[in-house]
Amino acid sequence: MGPDYSLEQALMARGARLIAGVDEVGRGPLAGPVTAAAVILDPEAIPEGINDSKKLGVKRRRMLEEALTASAQVSVAHASVEEIDQINILQASHLAMMRAISALPVRPDHVLIDGNKIPKGLNLPATAVVKGDARSLSIGAASIVAKIARDAIMEDLAQQFPGYGWESNAGYPTKAHRSALHDLGVTPHHRRSFGPVRNILCRDEN
């Protein structure tokens, strides 16, 4: 069973018209930004096959991202490596979410946020939905858009900093990435507040 539109329909029954699903990608990587997307689906034109982006292949994700860009209200935003190191990954994820919501071309009546916390300062009615990308079509759509956007950034950075495998691991701490970090050192795009990166920096200082 994949996500459905029941959460959105319940909100519509209570008078909400524009409902945004919001999700982030990139909390776990050692490198690169954290990326969030906000998506307001058109109830009359929901692409088939939306699911948690982690459960979809690359080709299917790209097809759905193109369909969503054509049929829905979509926005993408990021929080930088510097911001992650300054305010921690959870707060940076929420910052990226807030930016994505603010960047939507229309103001939603209600926001469905993936996870168990609503970003502080969000000035809109909102509901936190645990495992939302597997429950809500709007959140699942946002997970797809965010994943495509962040992967593209990491593929571009992989060409500037070859050897870390970012084009395939997207900055996550795979064995190959950890090995490259050990052998090649820390780049400007590594998160210095994350343990494996901090350990390399401490090693190099000694």
Structure description:
The chain is built from 8 helices and 5 strands. With 206 residues, the chain is of the alpha/beta class. The chain has one domain: Ribonuclease H-like superfamily/Ribonuclease H (Nucleotidyltransferase, domain 5). The protein has a 5-stranded mixed beta sheet, sandwiched between helices. Strand 1 and strand 2 form a beta hairpin. Helix 3 (81-87) packs across helix 4 (89-103). The longest helix has 24 residues, at 137-160. The chain starts with 5 loop residues before the first helix and ends with a helix.
Task: Name the structural class.
Answer: alpha/beta
Which architecture would the CATH scheme give at its second level?
2-Layer Sandwich
Q: What is the rounded distance between the termini?
A: 53 Å
Which CATH C-level class is it? Alpha Beta
Question: Strands of the biggest beta sheet: in what spatial order?
Answer: 3-2-1-4-5
Sketch the major β-sheet.
Answer: 5 strands, mixed
| CATH level 3 topology | Nucleotidyltransferase, domain 5
Average residue pLDDT = 95
Q: From N to C, what is the helix and strand string?
A: HEEHEHHEEHHHH
| Total domain count | 1
**Helix count, DSSP H or I runs of 4 or more residues:** 8
Rg, alpha carbons: 18 Å
- Per DSSP E runs of 2 or more residues, the count of β-strands stands at 5
Shape: elongated
Keywords, separated by commas or semicolons:
206 residues, alpha/beta, Nucleotidyltransferase, domain 5, 5-stranded mixed β-sheet, RNA-DNA hybrid ribonuclease activity, manganese ion binding, endonuclease, EC 3.1.26.4
